[in-house]
Amino acid sequence: MVSRLVFQTFVWFGIMGALVFVSAGTLRWTGAWVYIAVMVGLSLTMGVALARRDPGLMNERLRPPIQKTQTVADKIVLSILLIGIFAWLVLMGLDFRFGWSRVPAWRRWSAC
Description:
- With 112 residues, the chain is mainly alpha-helical.
- The chain has helices at 2-24, 30-53, 55-61, 72-98, 105-110.
- It contains five helices and no strands.
- The longest helix has 27 residues, at 72-98.
- It is globular.
């Protein structure tokens, strides 16, 4: 189960990284690297702790977000949320590329 958690975590954050860095047009974005590294670390730490404490719940969380047994309403809501997450990641990269949001460096780093 832990190996599946590690695999899915790296696949998910690999997709996230691809969306962010491709839309940013560069890999030279320290803030995005820090964000992804922290999220991977937290996801793995919490996932391993959950696998030890409640393996059944961990197995459920490792299943795909949209499943055959879900109601149509759940599938619609989850689809909208996933599209929103992907759009947010692309928008972050585009914002970095085109400089739409001018935030002083001290504010960016204090937000970490």
